[in-house]
Amino acid sequence: MWWFQQGLSILPVALVVWSAASFVFSYITAIVLHHVDPLVPYISDTGTIPPERCLFGIMLNISACLGMATMYVRYKQVYALNPEKSKIIKLNKIGLTLGLMSCFGLCIIANFQKCILYYIHVLGACLTFGVGAIYMLVQTVLSYLMQPEVHSKDIFWIRLTVFLWCCSSIVSMFVSSVVLYSGLYGMNLVQKLHWDPQEKGYTAHIISTVSEWSLAFSFLSFFLTYIRDFQKISLRAVVSLHGQTLYN
């Protein structure tokens, strides 16, 4: 049995691989068709113009579904391992709610392109990355509270490191974006897909785009930490017929 076939570890693996593929395939398509510049465009810019927009939307919607499934299984796992710890149960419910909100934000990003409905797209980004970062914090705290019985110190420190990576990317992206869209470098930058390195604001643009890619991959890295946990989870169906419980 391969490592990704153990338990339900296929869920976080599929989420990470599929999400990364959605970014890469859209990027390659947009570059081949000369719709964006090769040097670190915004992720959203690689899903703005057809046909990559269609690919980007479909794949991110599937990523959102995989994300919801992964977060729900994580919720059930924490609940099953800590049935009598009210503090952990409460945090666990908060984490699930935040996670589902983050996945809903990903659906908004997938279906409302930046160049068409900018403010709705930004709302989706805030839900995905902002609320998603809080979800990561909650899961990191849960990892701390569940050690050493369930989690080792190593997994807590790994998740804390990834969370700090996520936060630094958010801060870097926010500051550079505020500078870029402050009006100092012209208007209608939202519609701008091609940049000349000699243009004013190019440095802020590159910092912002690099931060966005860094932020996206910090999220994917966080879900990779679920693999060892999910290897211990098995799925079975329970059917009740005429008062008798059958297991499959």
Give the topology.
Layout: H1 10-32, H2 52-81, H3 86-111, H4 118-145, H5 153-180, H6 202-224, H7 227-230, E1 238-241, E2 244-247
Antiparallel strand pairs: 1-2
Helix pairs in contact: 1-2, 1-6, 2-3, 3-4, 4-5, 4-6, 5-6
Can you give a write-up of this model?
The chain is mainly alpha-helical and 248 residues long. The protein contains 7 helices and 2 strands, in the order H-H-H-H-H-H-H-E-E. The protein has helices at 10-32, 52-81, 86-111, 118-145, 153-180, 202-224, 227-230; strands at residues 238-241, 244-247. The chain has a two-stranded antiparallel ribbon. Helix 1 (10-32) runs antiparallel to helix 6 (202-224), helix 2 (52-81) packs antiparallel against helix 3 and helix 5 (153-180) packs antiparallel against helix 6 (202-224). The longest helix is centred in the N-terminal third of the chain and has 30 residues, at 52-81. The relative contact order is 0.13. The model has no long low-confidence stretch (mean pLDDT 88).
Residue share in β-strands: under 5%
Please state the overall shape, judged from the principal axes of the Cα atoms: elongated
Protein structure class: mainly alpha
Read across the widest sheet, the strand sequence of neighbours is 1-2
Total helix count?
A: 7
How far apart lie the N and C ends? 20 Å
Element-by-element helix/strand order = HHHHHHHEE
Stretches where pLDDT is under 50 for at least 5 consecutive residues are none
- Relative helix content: 55-70%
The radius of gyration over CA amounts to: 20 Å
Tally of individual domains: 1
DSSP strand count: 2
Mean pLDDT equals 88
